[in-house]
Amino acid sequence: MDARAEMLARLFEHSMGLGPEWRVENVWFESPGSGDEELHIRVGRAPGAAVRCPGCGARCGVYDTRERTWRHLDIWQFRTVVHCRVPRADCPEHGPRTVRVPWEVRPNSHFTALFEAQVLVAVMGGATVKSVAGRVGESDARVWGILNRAVAEARAGADYSGVTRVGIDDTARARGQRYISVMADLDGRRVVAVTEGRDKGAPGRLCDQLEERGGDRSAVSEVTRDMADAYSLGCAEAMPNAAQTVDRFHVMQLFTGALDRVRAAEAKSSAEKRALLKGTKYIWLKRPENLTERQAARRTSLEREHLRTARACAMTEAMRAVYACPDRESAASDLDRLTSWIMHSNVPEMKRVAGTVRREREGILNWWSTRSSNGFLEGLNSLIQSLKRASRGFRNVGYFTTMIFLRLGRLDFSAQLASACATH
Prior knowledge:
It is built from 18 helices and twelve strands.
């Protein structure tokens, strides 16, 4: 090797932590069809050094060798490729076994540990897969392969045995009513399971994933959810010991959504009411304390017009007042009076809401016992949707799931990063 190659060899030996058993045998440059020069490094086993069987750790002779290559971190902006004739240990107990080399995270990897760590850290730091792939000069599919394997290994080491309080919610993964269901550990503030769909079987599939990593569905004492019938029935089957709490946010969302539909329908009923209700959407949807003086005066004036919208607004405010009750007993009494009033009103949109509230009565009242909400999951949903927008969507559910766990699963990637640090 010339002086420059010798310098590169020493640099590589130190950066990769090769130790006395391995050495750089040659360094050279190649110019592939793209025209950009590549740096190639050949690593070999030191003469006379025994190898260890990866199965039992016994020191053995060499059975044979097989040629392999790995993509390494770019050195001085040159695409760098590592070559090695990897020996197979001649183990008397296990037979021929391929020896582990110090610069890879796992057997049969196509990348060095430092390269994989670079990709992992970049994506965890907020970069998109497309931008990272362009930066390192690899295809999206190969970068996704690195991330999928890293997440799978980290999830295999995750321990969910202490999970007792969970929240379940859905979020859109693509257009056309395509959703995923997400289970979060409310105490650990982390995503623990993701499954495709939001059907009755989704809670069961989420619990299966929980149990694959040390969790116990029978140990779950509380689950918060929205008012979807599929989740109500699915949670009852999958987690029979868990008290179901209907999220307060979704209850109020149900009321305000119906209130806005009442306003829109009434505005279309006549020209006079259209004029009265024009531009009043947020006057009705806002809480009274959040109205400006002008909005409050307008709302007071409209309430004298005997509008169905005003009655629907009063029902919505009555539901907010229920949540101000100090205990479950008083809340139950007020909730029953509210649903009775609504069912005897002439506002059909609100009657449908009352029917839903009656079906979910126990779940709504459980809030006074647990004080739990899906607020954390709603925040997660916002982050999940921002991930989707930043990546311009995901080709399949697997990629979407990988990114969710990578950013929001609070997984321990120390094993992957430690492998890289050990070689540096």
